[in-house]
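<given_protein>
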Amino acid sequence: MKVLFVYRGFGEKLTNPVVDAQAKSLINSGVNIEKFPISSGGFGYIKAYFKLKRHLSNNTYDIVHGHYSYSAIIASLANKGKTIGSLMVGDIDLQNSFLKWLGLFFSRKKWSSTIVKSRLMQKSAPHAVVIPNGVNFKIFRPIDKNEAKAKVGFNNKYHAIFVAQQPEKHKWKNLDLAKEAISLIKDEAVSLKIVNNVTQKELSLYYSAADLLLVTSSLEGSPNVVKEAMACNCPIVSTDIADIKEVIGKTKGCYLTNFDPENISDKIKMVLKNGERTSGREDIRWLSSDSIAKRVINLYDGVLES
């Protein structure tokens, strides 16, 4: 099976950690994956359409798989064959009603199948298939906490980490709420570390070094950071959104909160008082990248058979 991934890439190497991780898991499962990263947004998608159309006229694929709404739309317009669209948080959940309408229109009328990341997202797209992103257990694994702290430069303080790209831009991440909750603890030994622009291997070290992962988002699809932290046995304090309850609900040492900073602060104190790692890794075996890859391949097979 030969599949082309179409997606928005970032940086000089046009990487996208979420898409790259899924591509790697599918390659390891025997799927021939080629990549078509889009270098810029806005008019960059229009340029990408013509470039992709030329690419598809010279190459043959069983399926073209577009990740995020704009990339999937471009893919289906350029591709004469079967196209699958993967919708992420923001594609059908944000206040941008036009983007939501456009994504749902292509999902119903143009794409051979649609993937969403949680049952909550499926409420907006009942025809879609729920397949969350998996987590690479080889990269995200627990290591000695003191060793990890030394490698990431943590001192002897307690550290809550907030993992997000451009949290100031993405207001639904609620960084200010996280900062307020930490300040309410009124203990200088407790600090909040914003983690971004690091490799997955470096990120794994942060999960092992941290006392907890703090998530205060008001909107998510199926957040990878929660699953990654679970794979590293890192305690989690998170607002009750998306599928987070399903992921961490049975794990001792992980807590759900509302959006009251006092409530969040109290849960953080509970984690720090307990001071133990979790059994998260064992509790999310069903979300390993290998398991998720099998589900994606089953969807590919179904699309090709239809």
